[in-house]
Amino acid sequence: MNLEGVEKTMLLTLYAKAQHSQEKNPKFYDKKAVEVISKIDYDFTLADEDLLMKTGTIARTIVLDEMVSDYIKKHPHSTIVNIASGMDTRFDRLDNGLIRWYNVDLENSANFRLRYLEDGERVTTLAYSAMNPEWTQEIKISGGNLLFIIEGLTMYLNEKDVSDILKVIDDNFKHCTLFVEIMPPVSVKNTKEKSIEDTDAKFIWGLKKGSELLRINPNFRWIRDVNLFKGVDVYKPIVRLFSWIPLIRNRMDYIAVLEK
After folding, report:
1. pTM for the whole thing?
2. Domains, the chain, ranges and CATH?
3. Sheet holding 221-227, edge to edge
4. Rounded alpha-carbon distances, angstroms, from residue 110 to 102, 119, 124, 186
5. Each residue of 11-48: pLDDT tens digit?
């Protein structure tokens, strides 16, 4: 195991998905996550106890799986780029037999991923920082439709880093859609996830609304924000009793949808 800091969080989210898949009546089943977790030697004790991390991961997976699935249905020959992919297994859950998928991550994380999750004919892992424009030259777009997924990343960056990633995408692709997970500033300051803190990863940055991304890069168009309580409501229906309350709802991460 040679993962450090934020890199370790990709094991925690994979573990949460594997554990959920083995619950009674799971909201999604991730066969690949279950398979890979069984092969990784890591102490997941804190992850087992971290209900906040687990719930957030499951909610985000429910929401993004639905959003990406809808995109694929509308654009069956699309190209999808997963920024800071970690050990994400969404391709295996949603593949329609036609899409082209790229996983972009730092070299150490990408190499670790490839030990357990092999590339395929339509899946390619690229070992680059998302802020390095060189990775864009390796993307082959099929069907003309391009989707970027930026999940579980921006809260660990500063605003300049986020700006640099958006600039790389803006400078190199004329038309695309972005699904960007963002943490509200109040949660950046107050959220405590034991298993995340144990990796020495820190939440740093957030925005109240996805439309604020246009201040960082005005060349995109903001479409909407999708609150992750939408996924919590599916996972734990009883939460609907209070998840509509603005003071509570506005503390939850959300997916900002941008287009160019």
Report:
1. 0.94
2. 5-259 (3.40.50.150)
3. 123-127, 100-105, 79-83, 146-150, 177-182, 254-259, 221-227
4. 11, 11, 10, 32
5. 889 999 999 999 999 999 999 999 999 999 888 888 88
